[in-house]
Specification:
Elements lengths: L2 H11 L24 H21 L8 E7 L8 E7 L37 H21 L10 H28 L1 H13 L21 H23 L4 H39 L7 H6 L5 H16 L8 H8 L22 E8 L2 E8 L4 H26 L34 H7 L7 H10 L30 E2 L2
Antiparallel strand pairs: 1-2, 1-5, 3-4
Helix pairs in contact: 1-7, 2-4, 2-5, 3-4, 3-5, 4-5, 4-7, 6-7, 6-9, 6-11, 7-11
The chain binds fe (ii) ion (2 copies).
Length: about 500
């Protein structure tokens, strides 16, 4: 079973199975009956040219006129929701797609548990809901901005196509959030929709909301790590929002999860193919020691210890996105029925209200790391982070299998939860890879070996030479096992114009 299967299974499990046709006649393809809501239609058609301006100004650089073999959503049936074909990115049909309505759905958690799911915004929770939608929405265009220069150094047309697929779908995710804002939040919603196009990743005056979305993704290894770790944060957040008592948000997120699975597939297999190229080159050259970095780098592949340092960096930066482990805000959105836990509706043996429940949270107390039972309601971020770490491990295990299969003696591990954190319980503390609390001096002496250094990044940059011939791959990455939509190995995924 591929990673993509596994993740789509997770998404499929919470999708309804009814097929809903999308109206492609409308300017904005949709399955929300846009044509019968003239006011909404006008508002979105007014936003569309601004979105297209943003896409051409801040989206992928250099390939806007190229024909790209992309999938476009044509339905919301998990078994067959997309069609493939050549598209110039600015003409991509960004649509508004909601998973089918589940008749009789009730709010699965919080103090409104068991009440019918809301079809309109509950007045008392309006501000909280709007904020959550804006924060989620802000990450979508941010990642497109972060990745905009990568096309020029794509290690193959296959990878270039995957990058652009991720980009157009993040664009669609922005549409999904903007639909909710414009339809359900009146004037403030329209203003927020506008602001989503105005903030810019990495800009000093008006940056994106969350820290990790202001770093640029300047090389392909970072892109693969980002889609493995950071898009997976997206998956966890979307899954928690898919449980929402606000039904339109739930349905929107359920469909987004279907697309998100592919983004993590791109990340996982991208890193795995990098590992495969490294191991194959080492075996061929008779290099036994994976720490013989100089010899390995001479082969034009990425040494495994450097991949581990990249893993350490992206894992820790992404973990900060979960927010403070102990959070009264998280308790509030859960209690209000707005954001559930990962897999909430399927969690057995608890009451989904959590008034009395506790959850073990690792904290720093008197210079030691201890597991403390905290009120479960206030520990929801901590729990979602733990679920995320478990979810990451599946992919890392598959990377280790690839190393083992090649007969190389190396094992990738996740850093301790507290390693290199800026936010939450471990923010500002110095915690080693294996979870020892260090002094500042010890950290300064040792952390250089745990995180990518300038030399590492310069080496990675030196490998980022474009490889744009059909069927050809850069030295540092192995070809994929199967093509997109089962296309042959020499398929021209992007017709570069
Ligand atoms: Fe997304
Ligand atoms: Fe994504």
């Amino acid at each position: 079973m591929s990673a993509e299967d596994i993740v789509s299974d997770a998404a499929g499990a919470i999708s309804a199975d009814r097929f809903v046709e999308i109206s492609y006649d409308d300017v904005i393809p949709n399955n929300v009956g846009l044509g019968s809501d003239k006011q909404l239609q006008r508002a979105l058609e007014g936003w569309r040219p601004k979105y297209l301006d943003w896409w051409t100004g801040m989206g992928p650089v250099g390939f806007q006129q190229s024909e790209v073999y992309l999938r476009t959503a044509v339905g919301v049936d998990p078994a067959g929701w997309a069609k493939f074909g050549y598209v110039k990115m600015p003409t991509y049909r960004w649509g508004i797609l909601l998973a089918p309505k589940v008749e009789g759905r009730t709010i699965p958690f919080g103090r409104h548990k068991g009440e019918p799911a809301w079809q309109e915004v509950p007045g008392e929770h309006r501000a909280l809901l709007r904020r959550l939608i804006v924060v989620q929405g802000d990450t979508e265009p941010a990642s497109v901005e972060q990745q905009r220069h990568l096309g020029a150094t794509a290690p193959s047309l296959y990878d270039m196509r995957n990058l652009f697929q991720v980009n157009v779908e993040e664009g669609r995710h922005l549409w999904a959030m903007v639909y909710l804002l414009v339809k359900y939040f009146g004037k403030d919603g329209r203003e927020e929709a506008q602001a989503l196009l105005e903030r810019q990743s990495g800009q000093i005056n008006n940056p994106r909301i969350l820290g990790a979305f202001n770093e640029s993704t300047s090389d392909w290894l970072s892109f693969f790590m980002f889609t493995f770790f950071t898009d997976r944060d997206g998956k966890m957040q979307l899954a928690a929002l898919a449980e929402s008592g606000f039904d339109p948000l739930s349905r929107t997120c359920r469909f987004m999860l279907t697309e998100e699975a592919h983004h993590m597939f791109v990340g996982e297999t991208g890193v795995q193919r990098t590992i495969e190229a490294t191991c194959a080159a080492m075996v061929k050259a008779g290099i036994k020691d994976p720490h013989d970095v100089e010899a390995v780098r001479k082969l034009g592949v990425v040494d495994l210890p450097l991949l581990q340092r990249k893993l350490n960096f992206h894992a820790s930066v992404t973990r900060d996105l979960f927010g403070s482990e102990i959070s009264s805000n998280a308790a509030e959105v859960f209690g209000a029925g707005i954001k559930g836990r990962f897999n909430e509706a399927n969690l057995k043996s608890d009451d989904h209200v959590l008034q009395e429940a506790t959850y073990p949270v690792t904290r720093v107390v008197d210079g030691k790391l201890v597991a403390e039972e905290a009120p479960a309601l206030r520990a929801l971020n901590s729990r979602l982070l733990d679920d995320f770490i478990v979810d990451c491990q599946g992919g890392i295990d598959r990377w280790n299998k690839a190393v083992e299969k090649a007969g190389v003696d190396f094992k990738f591990v996740q850093p301790h939860k507290g390693f290199n954190r800026r936010i939450g319980e471990f923010g500002g503390k110095h915690i080693s890879l294996s979870g020892d609390l260090l002094t500042e001096e010890e950290w300064s002496a040792k952390s250089g070996a745990w995180l990518p250094n300038d030399g590492d990044m310069a080496f990675i940059r030196s490998l980022m030479k474009p490889c744009h011939e059909p069927g050809q791959y850069a030295s540092w990455i192995a070809p994929p096992r199967i093509g997109v939509n089962n296309q042959a190995g020499d398929f021209e995924y992007v017709k570069i114009a």
